[in-house]
């Protein structure tokens, strides 16, 4: 497993470097999150040993289990799935980042839990850039008002936005739109500098169109079980 994951990560790093070179970017400006949902702690250890420090989980109880089992302070945990109200306590306790804030009520609950824990959590606002009814996220037109509320919370650091463009169809158009609204956000909130956009299927296009944080699962760990 270790050798296979090391090989996969080297391939990923090469492809990230090539994508960056094509638009005159430094590849060390791209943050890679290894999406480890439904992967074992052995998979996570193998990726960590190969140089990955950021890991993304979609389910609160799985995040809790892995955090407690591994107990590795050098791992940065990102919660990237939909946030259920009854899972806020687990997410707030175990995640360093949360990418999927799209409701003020959830943001306020996270802020309250983090206050009790005396910790600050990094957050991205999820924007429904494709305007699909089946996808979570706020409308892009609501971003600045929503960001103002998030920025006012004491225990949440507004770090940027997260988007899920369509895998096919208007993906390029949606990525361009994502970069434009992210630029507008940064003009008001300079520290919100992360655009979390791009997965195994489209990360090269995402980097070329402005992403600086990509979420990679299958290319690192292999196909899902």
Short synopsis of the structure:
This protein has 225 residues and is an alpha/beta fold. The chain has nine helices and eight strands. It has one domain (2-221): Alpha-Beta Barrel (TIM Barrel).
Estimate the global geometry from the Cα principal axes: globular
CATH superfamily: Alanine racemase
Terminal-residue CA separation: 15 Å
Contiguous uncertain segments of 5+ residues: none
Mean pLDDT: 95
Total number of helices: 9
Largest sheet: 8 strands, parallel
Largest sheet, order of strands side by side?
Answer: 7-6-5-4-3-2-1-8
Return the structural class.
alpha/beta
CATH class: Alpha Beta
Task: Tell me the layout of helices and strands.
Blueprint: H1 2-22, E1 31-35, H2 41-49, E2 54-57, H3 60-70, E3 76-79, H4 88-94, E4 97-101, H5 104-117, E5 121-127, H6 143-151, E6 156-163, H7 171-188, E7 194-196, H8 203-208, E8 213-216, H9 218-221
Helix pairs in contact: 1-2, 3-4, 4-5
């Amino acid at each position: 497993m270790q050798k296979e994951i090391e090989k996969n990560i080297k391939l990923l790093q090469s492809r990230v470097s090539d994508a960056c070179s094509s638009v005159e970017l430094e590849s060390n400006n791209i943050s890679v999150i290894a999406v480890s949902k439904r992967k074992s702690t052995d998979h996570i250890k193998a990726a960590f040993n190969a140089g990955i420090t950021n890991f993304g989980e979609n389910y609160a109880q799985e995040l809790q289990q892995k955090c407690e089992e591994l107990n590795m302070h050098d791992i940065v945990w990102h919660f990237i799935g939909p946030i259920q109200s009854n899972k806020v306590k687990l997410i707030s306790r175990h995640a360093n980042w949360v990418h999927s804030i799209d409701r003020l009520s959830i943001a306020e609950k996270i802020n309250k839990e983090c206050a009790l824990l005396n910790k600050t959590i990094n957050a991205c606002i999820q924007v429904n850039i494709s305007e699909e009814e089946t996808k979570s996220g706020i409308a892009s037109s609501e971003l600045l008002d929503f960001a103002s509320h998030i920025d006012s919370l004491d225990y949440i650091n507004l770090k940027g936005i997260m988007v899920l463009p369509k895998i096919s169809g208007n993906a390029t158009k949606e990525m361009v739109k994502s970069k434009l609204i992210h630029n507008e956000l940064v003009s008001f909130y300079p520290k919100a500098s992360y655009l979390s956009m791009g997965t195994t299927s489209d990360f090269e296009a995402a980097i070329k169109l402005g992403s600086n944080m990509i979420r990679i699962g299958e290319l690192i760990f292999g196909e899902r079980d």
